[in-house]
Specification:
With 702 residues, this protein is mainly beta. Among the domains are: 2-175 and 191-265, monomeric porin ompg (Porin, Beta Barrel), CATH 2.40.160.40; 291-418, no CATH class. It contains 11 helices and 31 strands. The strands form 3 sheets. A 13-stranded antiparallel beta sheet has the order 19-20-21-22-23-24-25-26-27-28-29-30-31. A 12-stranded antiparallel barrel has the order 1-2-3-4-5-6-7-8-9-10-11-12. Strand 25 and strand 26 form a beta hairpin. The radius of gyration is 29 Å and the shape is globular. 39% of the residues are buried.
């Protein structure tokens, strides 16, 4: 008997004594098969998942916003939505979950506990609320148990224990949710409750077995005759194919086979080991030889500005201006390669030690983007010589540096840098992913794209793009009948560029400037985006060391022809917003913008983003305006998730390029804004010590 118990204990402990890997449900949330657990993903983790079986197909995007709070956006296909033989439907939903207790927080006996809202502001087809606890029995065996409401309260349900708090909790409102999109506050934790639970056993570092008792009876589907629950017990397994990819299989409710896949990515963990970019030149201590200069082909006859320009060439940094006054050199430059302006600043400073005469003892460095000076950083040359190879080099250099607003300094004579030509162009393939468009959940547009830009002056730019789809003329996606009280400012979007000919994606002339101390300006005119042309003007107040920025934008927009050529339609409008941006600790950024939108509605947009030092950004936003929910249509108001991915995260080499996308619940006319490229806030804050330059200051010596 003792031997048998020992063998069983060894099996339950698995072949790996480490903590069990996190597994996900078919809903794309941490859990077993369909039921949640109290486990949480690592802080900052981004997870994409697919859960597929005959009755439902779910695609989910989850983000661990903080170590305790996570959110999920889900797009589900529901078969035979209103009964056998009827059409399928596609449903969008949002989840929130919060782990309020860590395992072992108050002793070895305490479990982890979490509370969650599933589909809390969608159509309610998948809505549930739950409280769940999870406890490690062995390093490889975890048991979970919880109580659920809504869908999770339909299997062997019982009277709601919260009824003691009031009659409101006794019955759950089962009426339709109408247009959806609004939080169902009146339904949270109401109606019958039911218990669920299960175990997960990690047999090896690759394979985990799971079993659960589900509290979801699929009551609506059973009544419609589209799903038959024979048993509340589900069994399944997870196979970790790669560290970031998990494959799942399950047998659901004694009736159906389900499969799934989960893709994990943490912005904190680079896909490519850092340091692929070339090493910087070393700091030259005054009095030493100039071997680096000789290797660049710089001779005694080379001017100082040419020597600096040639030295910056391998770094992908353009020289915009240089003056030398007694013992001080002041330089303006544009970083075209490094995501971190701190890293570019460090490379410029090293090149200056190599190229400038020994009598120059102080450097004032002014990074530029879009032709405007972003900030001023003054370094003592002696500090660079003294600190380069010390343990606290970055923090000590920052403490010794003097930061200020470059707008308070006199402009420098512009230097034309032949290493960075004014006219650039390129042609290549493009692929555009169109998601959540009516009853076509995923569409792909591929073809060739020509892009060109001409830098008239450092702060004046013409740029544009032309695309030719390889798919030819395409059928219009399902249209949405907008209410008569508002113009179709975005619901006409599917009509653009489907005729099969070449289209002008954008063609703009932009001017950037400094209107005063801490004040930046932008004016853009032309074909601003695929649907609108016009004029966009912007002012931004952003001190160098401030977390706060305030902006104002005014636009005149004229609707373009559907063929995306040079013509316009009859509709035009004026929009404008006042915006406030604030940066919190740990990479959190908020934005509140209030004003007039494209359809003439007035309101405000609220956004929260979390930005990582390597350029990753994940956030959510919503817009509330005076457009009635009934006029807006399905979804009730504009909301979504947005993600920005830096290309150097995957490629390893230094690059400022990035890819951004928005997972919007629906594209409607309410709360619609112009999609103007080159807005000031992200350009300006990159070069501020109170922004990304300060956050990534540790890269100044890289």
């Amino acid at each position: 008997m003792t031997k048998s118990i020992a063998i069983l204990t060894a099996l339950l402990a698995g072949t790996n004594a480490a903590a069990q890997d996190l597994t996900y449900t078919l809903y794309g949330t941490p859990g077993l098969i369909e039921m949640p657990t109290a486990q949480a993903a690592p802080d900052g983790q981004v997870t994409g998942s697919l859960g597929l079986f005959k009755q439902q197909q779910r695609g989910s995007f989850s983000f661990q916003l903080t170590p305790r709070l996570s959110g999920t956006f889900r797009y589900a296909g529901i078969a035979e939505n209103t009964g056998p033989g009827t059409d399928d439907t596609f449903d969008r939903s949002f989840d929130l979950r919060y782990r309020f207790l860590d395992e072992g927080q108050f002793g070895d006996w305490t479990p982890a506990m979490a509370i969650g809202l599933q589909d809390f502001m969608g159509t309610g087809k998948l809505s549930s609320e739950y409280i769940v606890a999870s406890k490690s029995i062995t390093p490889a065996l975890i048991a979970s148990a919880g109580i659920g409401w809504g869908r999770m309260g339909t299997q062997d349900g019982f009277a709601n224990p919260f009824s003691v708090l009031g009659d409101h909790f006794t019955e759950r409102d089962t009426s339709g949710v109408g247009l959806g999109g609004k939080p169902s506050f009146n339904k949270f934790f109401t109606g019958d409750a039911a218990l669920f639970g299960g175990i997960s056993w990690q047999y090896s570092d690759k394979l985990t077995f799971k079993a659960e008792y589900s509290s979801d009876a699929y009551a609506t589907e059973a009544n419609l005759g589209t799903f038959d629950v024979k048993t509340p017990v589900n069994v399944g397994l997870s196979y970790r194919w790669k560290p970031e990819v998990t494959l799942d299989a399950a047998y659901l409710y004694g009736a159906q086979i389900a499969v799934g896949a989960t893709f994990d990515l943490n912005p904190r963990d680079r896909a490519v080991v850092s340091g692929v970019e070339t090493a910087p030149v070393p700091v030259r201590v005054r009095g030493q030889n100039t071997a680096a200069m000789a290797s660049w082909g710089i001779t005694s006859g080379t001017t100082v500005s040419d020597a600096v320009r040639i030295g910056l060439r391998p770094e992908g940094i353009a020289l915009n201006g240089l003056t030398i006054d007694v013992n001080t050199a002041r330089i303006r430059y544009t970083n075209t390669r490094f995501r971190s302006e701190a890293q570019a600043l460090g490379r410029v400073a090293r090149v200056l030690t190599q190229t400038l005469p020994d009598r120059i003892s102080r450097f004032t460095l002014e990074p530029m983007q879009a032709g405007i000076a972003l900030s001023s950083t003054t370094l003592q040359r002696g500090d660079l010589e003294r600190l380069e190879n010390t343990a606290r080099a970055a923090s000590d250099l920052r403490a010794a540096a003097d930061f200020g607003d470059a707008g308070r300094t006199s402009p420098l004579a512009t230097i034309t840098d032949p290493d960075h030509p004014a006219f650039t162009w390129g042609i290549g393939p493009y692929a555009s992913l169109i998601m959540f468009n009516g009853n076509d959940p995923v569409q792909v547009d591929i073809g060739l794209e020509l892009k060109a830009r001409y830098q008239i002056s450092p702060n004046m730019l013409i740029k544009g793009g032309i695309r030719q789809s390889a798919l030819g003329k395409r059928t219009l996606a399902e249209e949405f009948d907008a209410p008569n009280d508002y113009y179709d400012v975005r619901t006409d979007g599917p009509k653009y560029g489907v005729h099969g000919g070449p289209v002008i994606t954008d063609l703009t002339l932009s001017h950037y400037g400094r209107s005063g101390a801490d004040i930046y300006s932008r004016v853009t005119v032309g074909y601003l985006e695929q649907m609108y042309g016009g004029i966009s003007a912007e002012l931004l107040w952003k001190p160098v060391d401030s977390r706060l920025a305030i902006g104002a934008e005014l636009n005149y927009a004229h609707q373009r022809d559907f063929d995306m050529g040079f013509g316009f339609q009859d509709f035009d409008t004026v929009t404008g917003h006042l915006s406030a941006h604030y940066s919190f600790d740990n990479g959190f950024h908020t934005e509140v913008s209030a004003g007039r939108y494209l359809a003439g509605d007035w309101g405000a947009t609220f956004a929260l983003d979390r930005e990582f030092d390597n350029g990753w950004k994940v956030g959510a936003y919503f817009t509330l305006t005076d457009m009635p929910f009934e006029e807006y249509g399905e979804g009730s108001f504009d909301k979504g998730i947005r993600v920005t991915v830096p290309t150097d995260f995957f490629l390893g080499n230094a690059s400022r390029s990035e890819v951004s996308t928005s997972l919007a619940s629906l594209s409607r006319d309410g709360g619609a804004r112009l999609e103007v490229d080159g807005r000031l806030y992200d350009i300006v804050r990159d070069g501020h010590v109170g922004g990304p330059m300060g956050d990534t200051w540790g890269r100044v010596w890289r």
